[in-house]
């Protein structure tokens, strides 16, 4: 008898899809809202993102186990909306690759600066070398990406635990709750955090894989809940230890740089006495970016290979590599926009396939099928609320961007 996959194993898969470089942007995006309101924004986002994943499971439940996100969307909502959805998935993947490329270049440049000063071309050279080396794994094969990802996740886990342990013993409750701070109104800044928080729970393209993995929806449902729960726990711990060590007013230079990770790491390093903890935080950050870069890169690579019908030969994979990695690298060189801004754009567009499309799919599914083998409670109220949450997050991003909402500057 074939052994059934464990729910814990599936939870770890979902958590690994969620957790990555996005979590590095959470402290900076939450600097205005600070501890309590950042926690509220992250928890609310986790709940909605879990429910929207369950809505996708319900929509998939009337289809074959091998049915993909694109197949179901095209059948339910038509070719035009499916094309918009696919474009949104690609845009988010592309802008994340752009953000990871820029961030990695800045971190590597700072790390090697004591030995090699590359001058004004430092960021360009480091970003280019990073892409050329690590995109090779994606070009080579999915198998090598699998093996590298396992190593990176183990390494991330070890460096995360050591980093958190080192930071936790130095938490200042005055810092954590901004006692004696100049401002008392934190709630008004929480809205601007939602796009980054949403990006940090973007696992929805993996829901169909979870369903196929278990062969049913019920276990996939609990795996999704377990995965988002693990991610939530890690995010809250990370945000708390950062806020407990780095005073709120010291986020000013980080925000001024657009949330660039090298500036965050430098600023954090200035308040940490232990060199070991500093090195572990740098190592964790690089591993998180690299893990996300390879994972997202593989997804975009396969998507574009299928879209352009490139074959799996060396020539075909080289073409896929060019359209996957070259545009984000060029954009990174020409417009180093800032890590946080790029993640915010990704979150605003990701609302299409994490909130709006799942809500539409379930609405159409319930109109077409009066009963399904898997059903999410909450009635049409939940469907409407999920869709409106997506609209709210997208609008919030642009309102903050155009200064219509309070934007904390430190």
* CATH architecture term: Up-down Bundle
The CATH topology, please? Amino acid/polyamine transporter I
Radius of gyration: 21 Å
User: By helix and strand content, what is the structural category?
Assistant: mainly alpha
What is the name of the CATH superfamily? Answer: Amino acid/polyamine transporter I
The total domain count is 1
The N- and C-terminal alpha carbons lie at a distance of 60 Å
What is the arithmetic mean of pLDDT? 90
Largest beta-sheet characterization: none
- Relative strand content: under 5%
What's the tally of helices?
A: 17
Percent helix range = over 70%
Total strands: the figure is: 0
Per CATH, the class reads Mainly Alpha
Extract low-pLDDT stretches: none
What is the 3D form? Answer: globular
The helix/strand series, from N terminus to C terminus, equals: HHHHHHHHHHHHHHHHH
Function: Involved in transporting aromatic amino acids across the cytoplasmic membrane.
Protein name: Aromatic amino acid permease
Family: Belongs to the amino acid/polyamine transporter 2 family. Mtr/TnaB/TyrP permease subfamily.
Subcellular location: Cell inner membrane
């Amino acid at each position: 008898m074939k052994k059934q996959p464990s729910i814990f194993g599936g939870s770890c898969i979902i958590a690994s899809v969620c957790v990555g470089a996005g979590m590095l942007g959470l402290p900076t995006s939450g600097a205005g809202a600070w501890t309590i309101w950042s926690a509220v924004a992250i928890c609310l986002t986790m709940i909605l993102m879990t429910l929207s994943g369950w809505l996708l499971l319900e929509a998939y439940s009337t289809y074959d186990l091998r049915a993909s996100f694109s197949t179901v969307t095209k059948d339910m909502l038509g070719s035009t909306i499916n094309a918009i959805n696919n474009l949104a998935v690609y845009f988010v993947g592309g802008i994340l690759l752009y953000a990871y490329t820029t961030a990695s270049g800045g971190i590597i440049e700072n790390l090697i600066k004591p030995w090699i000063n590359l001058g004004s071309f430092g960021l360009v050279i480091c970003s280019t070398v990073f892409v050329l080396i690590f995109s090779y794994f994606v070009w080579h094969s999915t198998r090598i990406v699998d093996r590298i990802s396992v190593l990176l996740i183990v390494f991330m886990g070890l460096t995360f635990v050591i980093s958190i342990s080192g930071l936790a013993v130095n938490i200042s409750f005055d810092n954590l709750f901004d006692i004696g701070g100049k401002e008392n109104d934190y709630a008004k800044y929480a809205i601007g955090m939602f796009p980054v928080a949403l990006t940090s729970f973007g696992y929805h393209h993996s829901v169909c894989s979870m369903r196929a993995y278990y062969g049913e929806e019920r276990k996939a449902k609990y795996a999704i809940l377990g995965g988002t729960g693990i991610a939530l726990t890690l995010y809250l711990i990370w945000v708390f230890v950062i806020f407990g060590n780095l005073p709120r007013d010291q986020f000013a230079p980080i925000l001024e740089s657009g949330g660039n990770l090298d500036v965050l790491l430098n600023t954090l390093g200035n308040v940490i006495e232990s060199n070991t903890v500093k090195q572990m935080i740098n190592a964790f950050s690089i591993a998180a970016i690299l893990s996300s870069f390879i994972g997202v890169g593989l997804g975009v690579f396969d998507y574009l290979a299928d879209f352009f019908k490139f074959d799996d030969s060396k020539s075909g994979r080289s073409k896929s590599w060019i359209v996957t990695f070259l545009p984000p690298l060029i954009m990174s060189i020409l417009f180093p926009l800032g890590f946080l801004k790029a993640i915010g754009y990704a979150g605003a567009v990701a609302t299409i396939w994490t909130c709006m499309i799942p809500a539409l799919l379930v609405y159409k599914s319930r109109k077409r099928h009066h009963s399904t083998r898997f059903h999410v409670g909450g009635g049409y109220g939940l469907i409407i609320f999920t869709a409106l949450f997506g609209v709210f997050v997208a609008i919030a991003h642009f309102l903050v961007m155009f200064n219509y909402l309070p934007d904390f500057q430190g």
